[in-house]
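Weekly structure sync, notes
Attendees: PL (lead), two postdocs, one rotation student
Agenda item 3: pending single-chain targets
PL asked that the sequence for the first pending target be pasted directly into the notes so everyone works from the same version. It is reproduced below exactly as submitted, 126 residues in total.
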Amino acid sequence: MSKAKTPRAQKDNEAKAAASVIQASPRKVNLVAQMIRGLGAQPAVAALTFSKRRVANEVRKVLQAAIANAENNHSLDIDRLYVAEAHVGRSMKLKRFHARARGRGVRVVKTWSNLTVIVREREENA
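Predicted structure, written out during the meeting:
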């Protein structure tokens, strides 16, 4: 006897991808995630490809994974996909020290982020 299957967290017209540790602060990742919220999937990939921010490459990888999940796992039409949600959370913090003058040290906190991207298929206009 096995456990009952847990119901799917997303709706039938949604797909999700997540990155658990991105080496950038959540504030910086959220600026890039804000750029793509509500955009179509292909324009969002194009915007991230030509963005000058370093973290845009990581966000683009997660978005492409969500698009691939939608196409392969849930058989959604990729031409009608758009970024429904892109939310950022805090992950771990690495605490380091920099040597300063007179034998002192200052704390440097290197923050990491979690990113979740949910793409949704647009409804057909009847």
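Discussion points:
- Helices lie at 26-36, 41-49, 56-72.
- The first helix runs from residue 26 to 36.
Action: rotation student to compare against the earlier draft before next sync.
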